[in-house]
Design a protein that fits this description.
CATH topology of the largest domain: Growth Hormone, Chain: A
Number of helices: 18
Largest sheet: none
Order of helices and strands: HHHHHHHHHHHHHHHHHH
GO molecular function: transmembrane transporter activity
Subcellular location: Cell membrane
Oligomer: single chain
Number of domains: 3
CATH class of the largest domain: Mainly Alpha
GO biological process, one term: response to antibiotic
Protein name: MFS transporter
Structural class: mainly alpha
Keywords: Antibiotic resistance, Membrane, Transmembrane, Transmembrane helix, Transport
């Protein structure tokens, strides 16, 4: 959940310079801050949400994955939509939809209503990410100032990861789970006020979008996620139907892609072995991180922790996101991205294996904290380096598309992580959490081995 999009500044002379661009940059950064905050604060609210709406683990899984499924699938075309309609229109519409959707989430009377509105929030989030970076290019056409502006955007938005669990815990403690959505309303209003400047206006372009293929991709990911969730609940008929549907949707997507003049996926990009390895690593990192954010609050609840204490208990996991990326950047500049990615995946495997043991044995929180710290360090080493790894391995001129695809694949990993790691919780929280973390450790270890092999064969990666 750090900087995950490769962007280029606008061409010199593009657009009109904004005399005082920093308020608009702050607004753009707070927009992505809001998107990330929504993911992390909700995790701490899970126990209170389950109790209030009388829902099961399956309901909680869909409350999370309803957002990430749509976010992941629509990111594939959000960049093209941004170019077609204009970045400022897409960004401001996304922020407005996010604020209104958050208010509806806070008022949701049932978990079904909450899941439905969360899917709309996923669409709003997908609109905000590529458009926010396009707007930064509009504000700062000079390459040097653009790089500093993107760093500022990453720092402000990335702080949401560290701040989310403690803030969510405090909000739930004070006013219940609905408060974690209400906080987005004033944030959204502030973002709209700060970005209400003509200097951000972008002319619409002529890029086409293949909506049938996009909808098929969304359906395929939703059905694949439902397959894992149904399997976790041992609903085997449901599992078989969803699996068949996922396979059918995948076949339709591939057929549409083969005939499309504006394909959702860049075929040339996917033929690069280093790109495929980087995408797999990005999916594995978000599989582990988002799955852990789903499982841990339920484990902490069963250990008697209050929402506020639960939020604070996440700090060993989230603080490395705020403090470690500059170190990772220096390491990548010195030795390249391969070793930080491999080291990050190794730390993730070790951290989740430690969490599996601690959950199984009922070890004191100190042992859990060690596993959380290793996991957080793994994420903070791997993700910034993966952006460089994927963009460097991409064919000439495809860096922006590679960064966008990495972001979409990461959100796909997040959806599958919640589904797969949430499934064992039907065995009981402690035993299920142990199996969930073991799954994550195996995914990270296997992906690390494959990434090392593919990038060793693809030095450019």
């Amino acid at each position: 959940m750090t900087l995950d999009h490769a962007t280029r500044p606008a061409a010199p002379g593009a657009g009109t310079a904004v005399p005082r661009p920093w308020p608009a940059l702050l607004g753009i950064s707070l927009g992505y801050f809001m998107v990330l905050l929504d993911t992390t604060v909700l995790s701490v609210a899970e126990p209170d949400l389950a109790r209030s709406l009388d829902t099961s683990v399956t309901g909680l899984q869909w409350a999370t994955t309803g957002y990430t499924v749509v976010f992941a699938a629509l990111l594939l075309s959000a960049g093209a939509l941004t170019d077609r309609l204009g970045a400022h229109r897409v960004f401001r519409a996304g922020i407005a939809l996010f604020a209104v959707g958050s208010a509806l989430c806070a008022a949701a009377p049932t978990v079904g209503a909450l899941i439905a509105v969360r899917t709309a929030l996923g669409a709003a989030a997908a609109a905000c990410v590529p458009s926010s970076l396009a707007l930064i290019g509009r504000l700062y056409p000079d390459r040097g100032r653009h790089a500093r502006a993107v760093a500022t955007w990453a720092s402000i938005s990335g702080a949401a990861v560290a701040a989310g669990p403690p803030a969510g815990g405090a909000l739930v403690e004070l006013a219940g789970w609905r408060a974690v959505f209400l906080v987005n309303i004033p944030l959204g209003a502030l973002v709209l006020a700060l970005t209400a400047t003509r200097g951000l206006h972008c002319p619409p372009g002529g890029r086409r979008l293949d909506w049938p293929a996009q909808l098929a991709a969304c359906g395929c990911l939703a059905l694949a996620t439902d397959t894992l969730i149904a399997a976790g609940g041992r609903a085997w008929a449901h599992t078989a139907l969803s699996l068949a549907g996922a396979i059918g949707a995948a076949a339709v997507f591939l057929r549409l892609e083969a005939r499309s003049t504006s394909p959702v996926l860049d075929r040339v990009l996917l033929r690069a072995g280093g790109v495929r390895a980087g995408l797999a690593a990005g999916a594995a990192v978000n599989f582990t991180l988002t799955g852990s954010l789903f499982v841990l609050p339920l484990l902490f609840r069963d250990r008697g922790m209050t929402p506020l204490v639960t939020g604070l208990a996440f700090l060993p996991l989230t603080l490395p996101f705020a403090v470690n990326p500059p170190l990772t950047g220096r390491i990548v500049a010195k030795v390249g991205p391969r070793r930080p990615v491999l080291g990050g995946l190794a730390l993730l495997a070790a951290g989740t294996a430690g969490l599996a043991v601690a959950a199984r044995t009922g070890a004191p929180y100190g042992w859990l904290a060690l596993g959380l710290l290793l996991t957080g360090l793994g994420v903070s080493f791997a993700l910034p380096a993966l952006v460089t790894a994927v963009v460097s391995a991409a064919p000439q001129g495809a860096g922006g598309a590679a960064g966008g695809l990495l972001n979409a694949v990461r959100q796909t990993g997040a959806s599958l992580g919640v589904a797969a790691m949430g499934a064992p919780l039907t065995l009981g929280t402690a035993a299920g959490a142990s199996w969930a973390f073991l799954v994550a450790a195996l995914v990270c270890a296997a992906t690390g081995l494959w990434f090392g092999w593919r990038t060793d064969r693809s030095p450019g990666a």
